[in-house]
Amino acid sequence: MEGERKLHVAIVMDGNGRWAVQHGLPRVAGHRQGAQVVHDVVAAAPGLGVSALTVFAFSTENWKRPKEEVDFIMQLFVSTVTKWLPELMERGVKVRVIGNRGVLPGAVRTAVAAIEGKTASGSGLHLNVALNYGGRAEIVAAAREFSEACTAGTAFPHDLTEDRFSSYLWLAPDTEPDLVIRTGGERRVSNFLLWEMAYSELFFLDLLWPEFTPDTLASVLSEFRARDRRFGAL
Ligand code: FPP
Question: What secondary structure letter does DSSP report for 166?
Fold first, then answer.
């Protein structure tokens, strides 16, 4: 990857439930397998020229799922990140969680604080986990924070620029994904990184997230590198 620009890859990991059903397993087994895929992709990403990875683990809409499945995903997040922590630290991975933390279960908030704190000095891959995340909620939170600064007299409406607004977003300073991958066959963005993906290349894959491998990522990246990125210019 010498000489190639490092990339920020964002992923909507869809299809865990369908993969489990296809294998005669309960839906939650698909999430467990999906977490293993995250592990393998995190390990492979730096060698493929990826410097930041943002994965959609739980959306603001996912609370509508049965309570047992919601509890399982939350518990899976806590147990896997806790298990992976020594390896993540060894690899220099810097983990950040984006999303509305306020309503997350206490054990999840504690695990999030621990993993962020212990990986804060990581100088390798930036791994952003979107947990209770919604793109609109992120934009509204940024607007609210800016308005509060205006009310407090520390910011002024006429000073607001796109760059300034970006600085209030949860994902800053890793903001813009070069490419967004969605597995599972649906062609939509589902409230993921709405502001940040303005210029991202989109890749919709029919395979289910548990079927995704580092080789899949490598082939998407080579297609990405072959695409002509013009940002609206000729
Ligand atoms: C979407 O598949 C997947 C989720 C809502 C959960 C994804 C969570 C993980 C892979 C665990 C992440 C853990 C870490 C440590 C980052 P779906 O259930 O919507 O699948 P379906 O469309 O087939 O029903």
Answer: H
